[in-house]
Amino acid sequence: MNTAASVKEILIDVLQLSSDVEFDEETPLLGAIPEFDSMAVVTVLTSIEDTFGVEVDDDEISADIFETFGALCAFVETKV
């Protein structure tokens, strides 16, 4: 499974979205999806760490990472 597919699966699971929801690089996340609040950000990051076997330091986290689906996937790519 590629990075984007795994990140999509994490978002669907954590945010409890419909499994047929579509994401592309420009899909807005933070501020556009009501379920995507600060607690969801923490859960998404934890799931990314578990799924990809990476560690995300607090100083790496910014709102820019969660601006779009593409930005989140690009961030994950830099970690793996």
Rg on CA atoms, Å? 11 Å
Number of separate domains: 1
* CATH fold type: Non-ribosomal Peptide Synthetase Peptidyl Carrier Protein, Chain A
Instruction: Identify the CATH class.
Output: Mainly Alpha
Low-confidence stretches: none
- Tell me the name of the CATH homologous superfamily: ACP-like
Topology order in helix (H) and strand (E) letters: HHH
Q: What percentage of the residues does DSSP assign to strands (E)? A: under 5%
- The total count of strands amounts to 0
Determine the N-to-C terminus distance.
Answer: 14 Å
From the structure above, extract its key features.
80 residues, mainly alpha, Non-ribosomal Peptide Synthetase Peptidyl Carrier Protein, Chain A, 3 helices, globular, Carrier domain-containing protein
Written description of the protein model:
The chain is mostly helical and 80 residues long. It has one domain: Non-ribosomal Peptide Synthetase Peptidyl Carrier Protein, Chain A. It contains three helices and no strands. It has helices at residues 3-15, 38-52, 69-79. Helix 1 (3-15) crosses helix 2 and helix 1 (3-15) crosses helix 3 (69-79). The longest helix has 15 residues, at 38-52. The two termini are 14 Å apart. The mean pLDDT is 94.
What's the SSE blueprint?
Blueprint lengths: L2 H13 L22 H15 L16 H11 L1
Helix pairs in contact: 1-2, 1-3
Pfam family, one: PP-binding
InterPro entries: ACP-like_sf (IPR036736), PP-bd_ACP (IPR009081)
Organism: Aliiglaciecola lipolytica E3
